[in-house]
Amino acid sequence: MFTESMKVAGRLAMVCAAFALTACATDGGVAAAPTGADIKHEYLIGPGDTISINVWRNPEVSQVVPVRPDGKISTPLVEDLPASGKTTTQLARDIEQVLGKFLQQPVVTVIVTGFVGPYSEQVRVIGQAAKPQALPYRQGMSVMDVLIAVGGLAEFAAGNRASIVRTVDGQQQKIAVRLDDLIKKGDISANTPVRPGDVLIIPESFF
Fold it and tell me: What is the value of pTM for the model shown?
């Protein structure tokens, strides 16, 4: 007997399949909803991330380190260096500047191996989701991706009354989303793009 979570997973899989078919269509059919792929986004390091620091020809100072809750990192010869809110390139240049006091022309490469992201860019899901949580933003993310990550809607969720709260230039916007139409009807037009820092609020249905 199928559980509710298995049913939700099945619905999401069918929606994903429909989305893929729509995206591939070239005969004038219904156009796919925008997925946010046009949003330019460069990943910023955040507390909880794991980063690999490689110093060329200096393995003794190359390390894999976590970004501490205060947003800083510490490695051999580099102590308490702010990392949160920077790109990997920016952090690499900062590390080179510090190591330049001890090494001749250091060349540093930084790679993020465990992703969390800064709090300001995480996508938060609250309310009637199966697993409400904060998610790291990914390029091209949509509400479909968010629902898959949180296990779909809870049993008593009012999906079509859900909304996204987004801050733009210091002003909050509220965007209505139709999660029931997306999951239950496969309505790809309801696959709203998600942006860094969005909060998806899913209310409870009233009987």
Answer: 0.77
